[in-house]
């Protein structure tokens, strides 16, 4: 089937006009999927940018996006592994709103107001000023635009904030009369945000009843929650609850897919917990390695040691247990530099903190736990109570008994920004910096805690300097990190980056980068999210230190599975021989008699089965000497085999051939376990093929298996990559491109998309369920019962119109009767019903691209028959 572009998919903007269909001419896009940029919206945006002259870059062969060749990265978050590269190459990262606004305006919008970087604190602010003096107005507008905001000369529906001293100005009156969704704030709000470098809540500054004008500073303020601290309150956290669940009890863990992880010996965990982590990583498609050179991620506790220095110098992702647990719980990548306690701690603290005794006031819940641990990690002493020997008081408000005592005893009183920035920059910051002593009257600063990033350049200078001996890949990674640091404050300033020159350092990196294809077909790297873990609020005494909870661990499934594959033929033969009697064998010593005799000699014969009787290794060695074990080579290749005809109807030959392959280091595995290759005689739409393809594994010609069996040797794998021009033309995609897309999608092609299936569908439900879920879909069987419903949404909550919901069906009378009821259910939930034939799912899974065409609709499909 040829690739199709959705004729009914909703575009992100209006239908392109003939005189304006080149808005994105010269622009090359990469889309990053996340929980705020779901698969459906991504497909719509990709269609829109190509309709208006843009190009969506395909991932390269290893599934990595072509950051060096992109002009724009569309992402609603900076939590993706290549964000550092975007800074190094000065490629602007913008939210999906940028595409829609550009289409609406008929020209490229500025990129700075659409940055997802949380450091651009006013990125979603569209400001207009009312009765503000000219000098103050220019200062407010200038500072707001520098931090990601934009100015609106007049009041309109896109305006988010009006800066005013009263409601008397016509702009304020217009906003009130038209009930526009914009906030009328005092200029004090901007002033306090500028002083802190953080965006605080506008509530106390809103006209007409602004709290800062009517309430006293000492009046009570609720302690706010801190969303930025989830999973980052301690460098040695409790094991996440997901660690104890069964494989079926938690979402598919994909954050470690194709990642090689090294767990350092200095981690404060026992062997059981270490094995649990190993199992989680390997079951999630990752690999545990023992050498720094082989790893992508290095997990350790302290910023010292040969392994840490080497991993950090080479630009590996270095984090601690808290970071590892955060990845497991959220199943979404984030940089270990993003949160202070996600990075290994200094063994002896930060220089200068050793003699400090610090106490806290006006912080609660996770914020207090976080600051206690941060103080300790910095090397200072935390005290629960206020004493005269205290050197510092960190407070969220300048109010309370501790603040009064600090003033009497001449103790430095600062907010948490001082300890955060001291830790981030690896040196004690000057207490006289104004933002450390600024306390807005009606704000508890706990609401902006945990937003400070670590300074990688300072870490590099202090903890892992000297990288002259790095190899090519590590040297390039270091160049990227250095360039990202240099460009982080200026990236995204160009309104038309497609036509702007990159920095000299970025050009040097591009020259060093490996060559990559620059295809035109659409595909996008995907990122995936799972429901967030419930917030942990510690109860009990303030100075109780969080500890690692012991957690039960499961056996290492991967190792056991591998051993079971090896032993299966021997076990089967043994059981068969044991059941054979002397009479059957025409010999005086049959299998059953032999087993009974051994049991009698041991005195262990009983009514219980032999495999249930415990037996020590020592007794086994003395009383029944084992045969000399055959040496079996290590498994080099795990291969999923589908469509193979050699063993059809000949189980004995299959068993013998599998043993031969195993002696060559090749193991034939099932499609639900990790594998290195998929082997097939051609591109086939079987469940095994499509399920395994979704992981992005290379596809071999099954002639590779024949060659191994016939020659008794393992030939070069590269000589047996599957080539199938006929079926590539039929399915509208090359195997190379489908595999690259699958690597980038990482099992998230259909993430979050609801797909229903009729119970009576031809070929059965199970195969379609496996394929859909392998690509991340939400799969359900539809029986038109009251329990099968779609959660209703409000029309204004939908971006770009109602999202589609699919029903897979064939054309039997019983299934046809369900179609009207499904359409009714979908529309009640404000979703677009798409009742499709199974070819839609199979083609999407084969091409690894989310597309849709009306020809897949059952009414269109069966009308042609």
Helix content: 25-40%
Rg on CA atoms, Å: 31 Å
CATH superfamily of the domain at 754-863: BRCT domain
Silhouette? globular
Strand content: 5-15%
CATH class of the domain at 754-863, named Alpha Beta
Strand order of the largest sheet: 2-1-3-4
Uncertain runs with pLDDT below 50, 5 residues or more? 1-19, 242-249, 490-503, 514-565, 581-595, 597-623
CATH topology of the domain at 754-863: Rossmann fold
Main beta-sheet annotation = 4 strands, parallel
Question: Span from first to last CA?
Answer: 18 Å
Mean pLDDT, as a whole number? 81
Tally of helical segments: 30
Description:
The protein is of the alpha/beta class and 865 residues long. Among the domains are: 126-214, Rossmann fold (3-Layer(aba) Sandwich), CATH 3.40.50; 228-333, BRCT domain (Rossmann fold); 357-453, BRCT domain (Rossmann fold, 3-Layer(aba) Sandwich); 637-673 and 675-745, BRCT domain (Rossmann fold, 3-Layer(aba) Sandwich), CATH 3.40.50; 754-863, Rossmann fold, CATH 3.40.50. 34% of the residues lie in helices and 10% in strands. The chain has 30 helices and 24 strands. The strands form 6 sheets. Strands 2-1-3-4 form a 4-stranded parallel beta sheet. β13, α11 (365-378) and β14 (381-382) form a beta-alpha-beta unit. It starts with 27 loop residues before the first strand and ends with a helix.
